[in-house]
Structures are given as structure tokens and as C-alpha cells.
Amino acid sequence: MMDRMEKEPLIQEGRRLPDVADVDGLVSFMGRLTEEQESFYLDLLLASLVRLHPFIKSDDVKRMMPVFEWAGTVMEMPESETGELDVLAASFLLDYAQMLTGSERRVKSSKQQSFQDYKPYLDLVKLAFNRIKDYNTLPLLSTPTHRPAWIDPSVLVSRLSAYQKKRIKPDSLDFQIALSRVALDDTEEAIRLAEQELAGEYRELLLFLFKPEARPNGPFTFQAVWMTAALVKSPDTVYDEFKDFPYSAVNRAYLTGDIPCDVFTFEKPFGKVDRILQLIPPASKNVAIKWRFGGYALYMAYRPCSRIPLLVETFWKVPLREKDLKRFLLLSPNAPRIWLALLVRDRVRDAYWNDLELARLNLVALDTLRELDLEWRGGMALTYLAVCLLSIDRPVRLCAANLWGELVEKDLIDNVALGRVLGKIQALEWAPAQRISGLVVEMLINRSSFHNKELSVLFVSFLSCLPENPVKDLKRLLEVFAELQTVNNWPKVTYAPLLCLLETWKKNSKLTEVIESLY
């Protein structure tokens, strides 16, 4: 019997990000930018320059010159070799070099036009640059303190206290990113600190987020920040206190990412069939949807509902690129489901289309989500995992299988719900059944006795959602299920909906023998 793994604390010393304590440390850190790229480097660069710019001397500028030269090289790189966020960081460094040296204003590259679609990071860069120009050393609220992008809740309290003491309002997007990154698994010390150091709306806002039982308690001056706190704390809870916020008029699925999906079937010449997996975007006054004949959304454009957008609203315009995806996922490690909805909307359609770029995006997403150690709740999270388990790309299937194994060990997934999602997708034969049967035999079965039992739970739920008319390769699925029942010491099938289906399927002579072995 396997012992269940305990979730590790999100905030621990081994995950602490490097401390850029002084100008020498800053110069050294900037040098590392030219050699390697960690997901948190841009955040740390902005925060360090805001804090240390007043102390930089002319000799320090000379030591930074290799970094500025490197930034110029990045601006000339082809798109295939660098991410847009790397180009944004390089552009920021060149603007900063111009500020330091008083050189002639540089001509902006045509590449920079695309930055508008990268609003969260573009706004952070603008905020940092203005702080530097003004010699304003107030800390950015959103800078992570621990890998991969978590913020120690006590540090967030201290940062917010600095704003309160100077009577300066935080930037809305910076504040929202901070709440989306703050670690909420252990907030006892942060609650005590907030009650001591904060007052008024700041105090009420953080206590609402940190205390599981707390309700919102106004005033609600920072409406976007309050709404983001609510989405982070409990994305499926609708708080009556926010009913007059403009964001409450939006269909909530667009704020949580839990948009339903379905498989659409199209008959083609010569007996061929296309099966397309796609979102079914619900109606909302700020969403433009172009429907394709057959019922699925060919195009969907989201328009923020207020002059001050929610952080999650800015995600709907961000292009999905392999070199940038991890950093965008880590803007909201507490609430990543919208990014999964974007992957399904823009890239996941045909299970037979070997899209190598999609495979690379999926591997980045799965590795990042695995690092976050989150509970996989909500329809979109389960749909995305199911899609990856059925992927045409074998490395993606194996990565998803390893993630499933860890989620089971840590009790972070509902296998009945995952089985239902897999069954709904497979009922319309979106992907070949041998992908899931082969994955079970190769990667999922016999990890441990506990995994086997959870896999049996998943398979009962999965098979119960298949249609009465046998899907292709149903026999192989039932053989794998029988093998699974054997390693679990032959517990008989007792779930009534599956028993009814087995009785119906048994009428097919090819299935009779394997089905009788399950009674």
C-alpha cells in the first residue's frame, strides 16, 4: 500500500529566489540575463532596478554595457529564436541605457508593435520605467519571492504597508498580479501581520483573501482588485457584495476559464468524418462570437468590460507562443484555467492533426502546472488533462500520465470527474481508443495499489459515459478494464449505469466473452 504524498509548502527556503541586495549584485544578475533565462528574471530585473537605480554610478553603467549590447542583439533576432517577452525585456534595457547615458532617442523596432497584446507584462515594464525615472523606490507588489512565481503572503503585507504609509495607491494590474501569485496554503502569520500593520481597505482586502471563511467587507475602491481576490480565493463563488461591479455583468465563464467544450462532427466526401473539439462560448455582451455552420465557434473576441480591466481579461488577447507561455502561466499560478481555455480555443481541434507547435505548448503547460502543485478542479482543467492524455503526440501523453500519477498521490484530482470528461470526448470518437488503452498499459497501471484503485474508479466513470452503440476498439478498452480489475483482486462491477451498458454491449458477439469476465 502506497503512502499518500503530502503537498509541500509553497513557501520554503529551498525555493527562495536570489536576493539582489546591492548594485554589485544587480550588475552580476544582469550579466546572467545574457547567459540563461529563468521564468522570473524579467520580474526580478524590474524590481531590482526600481529599488537600486538611485544608487547607480557612472562606473556601474560601464559595467552594464555588455548587457545593453546583448539587448540590441536580441532586438535583431528572428522570431523563431526568441520570445516576445525577451524582446520586451531587451527593449526595456535599451530604453534604460538611453536614460542612463543621455544618448539620442532610439528608433523603435517594428517588433514592438506586438507588445500591445502582451498587456500584463507591458504594463509592468511601463510602471517600472516610470518609477525609475521618478526615483520612486516603492516595491512592485507583484515580484515573486519563491519559485516558480509565488509571493510570500507576509512579504505582500509588508509591501502594501509601505504604500499605505506613503499614502500612494498601488497600480491596479500590479496589485492584481500580486494577489494571483500570493501563496495561500499557510497564511496564519500573514493574517497576524495584516491585522497589525494595515488599516482600512488594504486590511479588509487581504484578510478577505487570507481567511477562508471571510466575506468581502468594503469600502470597495479597488473594484478590479477585489474581483481578482474573489476569483483567486474561490473562482466558483459569486459574492453578492460585488453585484454592482461592472465585472459582475460578464458571463463568469470568461473570468474563470471554465467554458464548456464539445466535439462537433462533420461528414466529408468518400465517407470520411472530421471531429472537431472546440469551446462553446456562452453569450456575453462584451464577447463577439462568429459561429460556423455546424454549431462551433470559429472566432471569439473578448473585450474588457471596464476602463480598468481585470488581469484575467487581459489574457484573452495574448498570443500563445512556446517561449512565452510559462511566464504568462506564472502571472496567475493561483488561477491558470483561462490559459488552458486559450489552448483549447486556439490550438486543440483535430486529434489526428500532428501539430508540433501545439505539442511544444502542451509540454510547457504541463511541466509548469506540475510545478505549481495545484488541485485540478473545474471542467476546463479536467478537459485539458483529458485532451493531453489523448494527444497524438506521445511525449505529451506521457507527460500528462506522469502528471496524473502525481495528482493521484497528492489527492489533487477527482478521477470520477476526469473519467466523465474522457468518456464524453471518446463517446464521439474524437481520438482513437487505443491511445488511452495503450497509455493505461504502458504508463498508468501498476504504479501502486492505490493508483490501480483510482484508475479503476476513472475507468468505471469513463466507460459509463460511452454510448450504447459500441465505439471503435471498445473490445480493447474492456480488455484493459478487465486487466485492471484483475490487479485489483477482481472487484466486481457494481455501478448500475455501467452494468446496464455492459448488458447492452454483450449482445455484440465480439464483446461477450470479455464482458462476462467482468461480472
From TrEMBL:
Residue stretches making up the DUF7824 domain: 15-250
Every DUF7825 domain range: 322-518
Protein name, UniProt field: HEAT repeat domain-containing protein
Taxonomic source organism: Parabacteroides merdae
Native organism taxonomy: Bacteria, Pseudomonadati, Bacteroidota, Bacteroidia, Bacteroidales
